[in-house]
Amino acid sequence: MKELIRELTQAFGPSGSEAPVRETIDTLIRPLVKEVRTDALGNLIAFRPGTGSGKRVMLAAHMDEIGVIVTAIDDKGFLRFSNIGGVNALALIGTRVVFAGGAAGVIGSEPVDELKDLKLEKLFIDVGASSRAAAEKQVGIGDMAAFHGPFQDLGDRVVAKAMDDRIGCAILVQALRELQDSPHHLIAVFTVQEEVGLRGARTSAYGAEPDVGIALDVTRVGDTPKSRTMEVSMGKGAAIKVKDASLICHVGLRRHLVEVAKAHQIPYQLEVLERGGTDASSIQMARSGVPAGVISIPSRYIHTPSEMVDMADVRSCVQLVVKTLEGPIDL
Ligand SMILES: [Zn+2]
User: Fold this and answer.
1) Ligand 1: centre distance to CA 35 (Å)
2) Residue 109 forms beta bridges with which residues?
3) Range of the domain at 115
4) Does the pLDDT of residue 249 top 90, yes or no?
5) What is the model's pLDDT at position 114?
6) Which residue in 111, 118, 224, 276 is a FRET match for 39, CA 20 to 30 A apart?
């Protein structure tokens, strides 16, 4: 599974530029499902029919990652940029970025007196060019870049860029591999543009007409030194979301996920996330409403080039998805 995580995290895919990730996932899942298609926004939608009269279950993991977009190039060849999704200036200094075409750069900063003055407009990307003309040979206005964040295996834990939410994609791919018979009609959706407003989930949920929706995404933890209070910890199991800033999960579905975890001795923890949102919010409000919930992967250093997850938690999430799909879903 680590190799799958490496492959998915290293694919290029800032919001709106998910094609390379989509091609990677398409190749991986085609043998596992009946039908795969890409919709108008770029969501990759896979369908696997059930063996009985189960529910239409939509599982969603977002393909896009945060990144930066070039807004201007100065005479000396330095690029100014804006954010794609929730990018924190503090996490950027010294970070390397990589463009779709392969050009790379380093993020530098103008001098600032205080850290609170460190805003994106103080930062620039240095692509190693000595003039505007030289820079323009590599990049142009509107080009997007992703963080450079190689996959590293730390043993029980792994770290890479874009773990948010390629780890969700990896769990969904692995669940498709392990799932035997399911009574449910499964619609596995690898969504686009989550980081800029849960957009791909909105159109794909409308099209999928699910009876139930479950998103797979990362959540933060409260177990690092002097962290903000948060009950979720690394290594304590799949996090079953109760609420975040974008949705209150369907109570029956949340209870059902807990029951499945208990019945199969899958480690789990309940998650209340004070900020942030997930695709489940868009699914919940599709058409006339869909019971929706989230299985979250506890993660450290979210929205930096070094997002970390625990392999035992990843395993728990795969098992929870598989066991949920294998039995009846009573809400
Ligand atoms: Zn995410």
Assistant:
1) 25
2) 123
3) 67-147
4) yes
5) 86
6) 276
d(CA 94, ligand 1 centre) in Å: 23
Domain stops at, among 125, 147, 169: 147
Q: How many domains does the chain have?
A: 2
pLDDT in tens, 5-47: 999 999 999 999 999 999 999 999 999 999 999 999 999 999 9
Distance (angstroms) between ligand 1 centre and the Cα of 85 equals: 10
Same domain assignment for residues 121 and 252: no
Residues 319 and 191 in one domain: yes
DSSP string for 28-84: HHGGGSSEEEE-TT--EEEEE--SSS--EEEEEEE--B-EEEEEEE-TTSEEEEEEE
CA-closest candidate to residue 243, choices 271, 222, 210: 271
Distance 195 CA to ligand 1 centre (A): 7
What CATH number is attached to the domain comprising 93?
A: 2.40.30.40
Residues designated catalytic: 194
Ligand 1 centroid from CA 243, angstroms = 15
pTM exceeds 0.85 for this model: yes
298-317 mean pLDDT: 97
Compute how many other C-beta atoms are within 10 angstroms of the C-beta atom of residue 141: 12
- Would you mind telling me the total number of residues written for the chain in this entry? 331
Is residue 54 domain-shared with residue 78, that is, in the same domain? no
Q: Answer yes or no: is pLDDT of 116 > 90.
A: no
pLDDT at 331 over 90: no
Evaluate whether residue 156 is within a structural domain. no
